Amino acid sequence: MPKSKVRKKTDYNIAPANRTPVKVKAGPSSPIYVSVMLGLMLIGLAWLIVYYLAGDQIEFINSLGAYNFLIGFGFMVAGLIMTMRWR
């Protein structure tokens, strides 16, 4: 049985990355930042719970209709986005 031909491997030359170091803010986030972050998530959750349980009894929330989902999830997403900068 004939031998298969050996393929020639290409030689890749990867240039070293030319990056400058980035200064990172040292230290943890302030307690105010963490409380605002958690507060936004809890406000969004509370908004949706109030909408489901007592939405038909509160005129303001009842008049918003489906926008209540946008408001509730908007608060929660804002808190979630803040977690990316939390240290």
UniProtKB/TrEMBL annotation:
Keyword Transmembrane helix: yes
Predominant place of localization: membrane
Keyword set, alphabetical order: Cell cycle, Cell division, Cell membrane, Membrane, Transmembrane, Transmembrane helix
Residue ranges the record marks as coiled coil: none
Pfam families, alphabetized: CrgA (PF06781)
Cellular compartments annotated: Cell membrane
Keyword Cell membrane: yes
Topology of this chain in the membrane: Multi-pass membrane protein
Signal peptide location: none
Record-annotated membrane-spanning stretches: 32-54, 66-84
GO biological process, alphabetically ordered: cell division
Top-level taxon of the source organism: Bacteria
Protein purpose: Involved in cell division.
HAMAP family according to UniProt: CrgA
Stated family: Belongs to the CrgA family.
Protein name: Cell division protein CrgA
Natural source organism: Rhodococcus gannanensis
Lineage: Bacteria, Bacillati, Actinomycetota, Actinomycetes, Mycobacteriales
Gene name of the record: crgA
